[in-house]
Design brief:
Layout (H helix, E strand, L loop, with lengths): L2 E9 L3 H12 L5 E4 L12 E2 L9 E2 H14 L3 E4 L2 E5 L5 E5 L4 E9 L3 E3 L5 H5 L5 E2 L2 H4 L7 E5 L3 H10 L5 E5 L9 H8 L4 E4 L2 E9 L6 E9 L5 E5 L2 E4 L3 E3 L30 E3 L11 H30 L1
Parallel strand pairs: 1-2, 1-8, 2-5, 8-19, 10-17, 11-12, 11-17, 12-13
Antiparallel strand pairs: 3-4, 6-7, 7-8, 9-18, 14-15, 15-16
Helix pairs in contact: 1-2, 1-7, 5-6
Length: 323
């Protein structure tokens, strides 16, 4: 067990955290970044990436995160592998305790702990995750041009994903366990009037079907159960999108930082600043709208610049008080 102080501490090593690390390191702030349970964030479970600027060829999510980490380390970021289990943001400096027992204190904290897609928890869903089962239509819809897909869910996210997928897929089957949607009425009208979308009401996804005899696993269909009749039907398709929401990783900051009803951290308009001066939030932990690697990187940059400004003002105040 040890105690160590840092000017800037960054929690999370996805696109937001690593970009914040690159910018704060280049500003000479010697940042320390703490990896959580999933080093590299959600991009490490994203196989083909075609929409990150600067790469005309398809790249792999894990590779992109490795490159970002190498860049962050190259300009002077210290990487620590630990799970933060406790955070005290009422004290100065801020105090964080790791699962290891180590205590980390810092003058500025950048929270980039991300969000996780909610999954159904089925074995077949897990087996084909990244190989036909996805939780992000805007990330992966492009790969289903001319193919049939399904979307599971009934809220705004599910409806938006289904409508978006009609730009690529020939048919979108939407599975919802009730006989009416929870989504906004305008979105429902757009969905129900789209000839490419077929509703499977009162239904749940029973199993994702696929084959694993090729170079990579691939989805070939699904089994759907009608909750009223208990009848199970099989459908041929090539992609299944799970759209039952995301859960931001913010439990650590309950009762300390402002959150919306879904648990996303609330930041000031056009800023990554939270209600506690010196604490900034970037990436999917505060973005329940876009959830893209490039937007996460953008807010990571913003957080770094704001943290640099905050620390400079803090230092100037301390110097003035000492004179």
């Amino acid at each position: 067990m040890s105690s160590q102080h840092h000017k800037v501490l960054i929690l999370g090593s996805g696109a937001a955290g690593l970009t914040a690390a690159i910018y704060t390191a280049r500003a000479g702030l010697e940042p320390t970044l703490i990896h959580g349970m999933q080093p590299g964030g959600q991009m490490t479970i994203t196989t083909d990436v075609e929409n990150y600027p600067g790469f005309p060829e398809v790249i792999q999510g894990p590779w992109l995160m490795e490159q970002m980490q190498a860049q962050a380390e190259g300009v002077g970021t210290t990487m620590i592998s630990d799970m933060i289990v406790e955070a005290d943001l009422q004290t100065r400096p801020f105090k964080l305790t790791g699962d290891s027992g180590d205590v980390y204190t810092c003058d500025a904290l950048v929270v980039c702990t991300g969000a996780q897609a909610k999954w159904l928890g089925m074995e077949s869903e897990q087996k084909y995750q990244g190989f036909g089962v996805s939780a992000c239509a805007t990330c992966d819809g492009f790969f289903y041009r001319g193919k049939e897909v399904a979307v599971v869910g009934g809220g705004n996210t599910a409806v938006e994903e289904a409508i978006y997928l009609t730009n690529h897929a020939t048919k979108v089957k939407m599975i919802h366990r009730r006989d009416e949607l929870r989504a906004e009425k305008l979105l429902q009208q757009r969905l129900l009037s789209n000839p490419k979308i077929e509703m499977l009401w009162d239904s749940t996804l029973e199993e994702v079907l696929g084959k694993q005899d090729g170079p990579m696993p691939e989805v070939t269909g699904m089994k759907v159960r009608n909750v009223k009749t208990d009848e199970v039907t099989e459908h041929d398709l090539e992609g299944v999108f799970i759209a039952i929401g995301h859960k931001p990783n913010t439990d650590l900051f309950t009762d300390q930082l402002e959150m919306d009803e879904e648990g996303y951290l609330i930041t000031q308009p056009d800023s990554t600043a939270t209600k506690i001066p010196g604490v900034f939030a970037a990436g999917d932990v505060q973005d329940n709208k876009f959830r893209q690697a490039v937007t996460a990187a953008g807010t990571g940059c913003m957080a770094a610049l704001e943290a640099e400004k905050y620390l400079a003002e803090m230092e100037a105040t301390e110097q003035a008080a000492a004179e």
